[in-house]
Amino acid sequence: MPGFVAGKKRYTESNMCFTNLINQDTLTCSKSNHCLTSEVLDKEDSPILPGLPDDVAKHCLALVPRSYFPAMGGVCKKWRSFIQSKEFITVRKLAGVLEEWLYILTMGTEEAESHWEVLDCLGQKHRSLPPMPGPGKAGFGVVVLNGKLLVMAGYSVIDGTGSASAEVYQYDSCLNSWSRLPNMNVARHDFACAEVNGLVYAVGGYGADGASLSSAEVYDPDAAKWTLIENLRRPRWGCFACGFEGKLYVMGGRSSFTIGNSKFVDVYNPERQSWCEMKNGCVMVTAHAVLGKKLFCMEWKNQRKLAIFNPEDNSWKMVPVPLTGSSSIGIRFGILDGKLLLFSQKFDPGYITLLYDPNAAPGSEWQTSEIRPSGLCLCSVTIKA
After folding, report:
1. Each residue of 169-208: pLDDT tens digit?
2. Where is the F-box domain (predicted)?
3. Burial of 98 per CB tally in 10 Å (0-12, 13-18, 19+)
4. Measured distance CA(204)–CA(74) in Å, rounded
5. How far, in whole angstroms, is CA 328 from its chain's centroid?
6. 115 forms bridges with which residues in the sheet?
């Protein structure tokens, strides 16, 4: 099976018009001889870059390679504010310079705690994230929103006492820093969550008293507020969620209305603000990922087949997984460059990461990849910025 390395445009020092500028305490325009200190740049009526209209200056800043963003954010408040904004990601997208990085929550074989590490499309490690704020948690939710990583709620044990959390933290992938967001309305863990149309939904799970929940809520980043929405028809926990065509799909896990694992699919329509139900979901899902307009699942009882859901006709297709790679039970998914990565849950230095390309010619969908975390992959997200 051939190895796979995605070819991507690489930036060099000669491309970096701001490389020297952002690494100096004082910025100087060589021809105009203006001293561009942070105080000058932060004046209310001052332009982002003196001598340039702001729209041109924003385009110039957006062309800088992603690895320089944290340094740029330290130049002045105006630059930092722009880098933190949704507009910054939009300008980079229009300029065709978005860089896709894979953020993997990793557990080393000898480490007591997990940590986030960042890989690019060539498998090169860029950085490890600063430690997540707050106490260590399990059963938390992870969502990507506007180029930022949200880590929500979860279950923590402090001084021997366990409790559900309503805390939400946000990691800014451009500035490499964490911040606190408003708490959720309901403390929960082992719940479903997903982004749909720029909003974040959290559904079900276990509550503060250990009881299963039917409650659901939505976070609006513009208003910086969580709002309760219509409850599920039944309590549901251990489930997962994804968004398709402006709707929220909740699958898997267990329900108080079913014996064992639930095959029901709860679908929330934000326009109608109501739930409906389907009956052909997956059960005991150990890994899931949305790629393009389809959902990819791995079921616990069938680790050698991908279950692929097409929301257009609510149909499922099964695709055999090659034996190449780890033969152990346990797979985690990653998405990079429009392809699905399958990481083994058995820590073996010699294991091979499998790669599935849904757009490849028939018979060539499966390849192998050099991309893999340094330890066990607990979960992963892809952030374009």
Report:
1. 999 999 999 999 999 999 999 999 999 999 999 999 999 9
2. 52-92
3. middle
4. 40
5. 26
6. 106
Six-digit token string for 199: 């909003």
DSSP letter (8 states) at residue 77: H
DSSP string, 94-125: HHT---EEEEEEEE-TT-SS-EEEEE-TT--E
Instruction: Give the C-alpha separation, 188 to 253, whole Å.
Output: 15
Write out the H or E segment, with its range, that includes residue 317: strand 315-320
**Per-position DSSP letters for 168-180, written without gaps between them:** EEEEETTTTEEEE
In angstroms, the Cα distances linking 385 to 89, 99, 125, 130 are: 6, 6, 16, 18
Q: Distance between CA 27 and CA 358 in Å, rounded?
A: 48
Q: Which residues, 6+ apart, have CB-to-CB distance to 79 below 8 Å?
A: 41, 48, 61, 72, 73
All CATH 2.120.10.80 domain ranges of the chain, comma separated, are 132-282
Instruction: For Cα atoms 303, 120, 116, give the angle at the middle one, nearest 5 degrees.
Output: 70
With residue 79 as reference, give the H or E element that holds it. helix 77-84
- What is the homologous superfamily of the domain 132-282 according to CATH? Kelch-type beta propeller (2.120.10.80)
pTM score = 0.86
C-alpha dist (Å) from residue 319 to 200, 348, 358: 30, 25, 11
* Burial degree of 166 (CB within 10 A; 0-12, 13-18, 19+): middle
Mean pLDDT value of segment 77-84: 94
DSSP 21-67: HHTSSSEE-TTT--EE-HHHHTSTT--SSTTS-HHHHHHHHHTS-GG
